[in-house]
Structure formats: C-alpha cells, structure tokens
Amino acid sequence: MKTLKSIISVLLSVAVVFAAALSVGALTKYVRGDADGNGVVNAVDVTVLQRHIAGIDTPSFVKIAADVDGKGPSIVDVSRIQRYLVGLDNPYNIGKTFTYDEYELPVV
C-alpha cells in the first residue's frame, strides 16, 4: 500500500511539473505598436497596419502588437502610433515589451 501511494505521489508531482512547463511555453513577447513584428516601432508599422485595415494581404502582420488600445486593429491605432513616432503622448505604452498568454481568455 505504501509503495502504491509513493508511485501515485511521484506521478502526480511529474504531472504538475509538466503542466507548469506547458503554461510557460504559451507566453509570447511583443512590442506594442510593432505591427510587422520586427521588434521596432517605426513608419513601416503604420503602413502594415493601414494595409491590414484596407484588406490588403499583410503576411508579417502581428495583430496583438498592432492593436494598441485593445479594441481591435483600427485607424485609431494608426493615429496613436503616428503620435508616438513624432514624440507626442503615449498613454498606451507604445514601444514597450509586453508578454501575452495566448491561452488566456479575453476580457469581455
């Protein structure tokens, strides 16, 4: 009986370790405002976001990074990135690195 409890305890411990490793692997880092995913916010990101909004194919588009205000990629995000690029206000922390859990449920 003691051996069975020990085996079950070890198996549960291993399962917990693997579950923790899987959840850590789901984290993705991105730079807010970096619509093309190259790690830098610049005028190219504005163009990529505008092309995406216009429905033009943009294979390098990174939706989570381009959505500056959390309301979905829009022309408002384009304006916010442009304001950041010319040194005006930056209330949405454009240019800063964030971690995103792709398995996290969105807040509705």
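the 2nd protein, sequnce then structure:
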Amino acid sequence: MNNPFRYRLSDGREVETQARRVLEVQADAIVEHLATGGRDATLPGLGKLKLSARITRTGRNPQTGEPVQIPARVVVKFAPAKALTDAINP
C-alpha cells in the first residue's frame, strides 16, 4: 500500500507501523487463500478478487511479427464493488 493510505488508516496517531502490519497481514492472508485453492476473496466495500484460467493462445512478437505460443495460466481479476464504482463515478 502507498504511504498516504497507511497514514490515513493510522489516523495520524503515530501508529503507522501497526497500520502497515495490519495491511500486510491481510494481504498475506488473501494471497495464501488464493494460492491454496480458494477461488475468490472478497474485500468488503472494495470488491472481489477472482481467479480466472487463461487458455494457451498464439500471439505475435511485436519486434519481428513472428508467432509465439503464450502458455495457459491462472490470473487474478478484480471486480469492483458497487460502492467503489459509485464513489468514483458520482
């Protein structure tokens, strides 16, 4: 997380270190959950992180134009919550 967010979470009471630790623990828990078989993780008021499978596909090398195989993989997608979308687009 960026410093202004940690500072705001700490509310200026010199507990920025504790706020940073809370955010790190939360992020670690989400990563562990998704890495060990969880299909999604909800962040209340922010949105949902979902795992999505991508299939193998053919792409192009932008420098040479040569076709290259892009391997299948699992990616994380973020779906924003309605509250977040409404706050950004009043």
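The domain at 39-90 is CATH 4.10.520.10 (HU Protein; Chain A). The radius of gyration is 19 Å.
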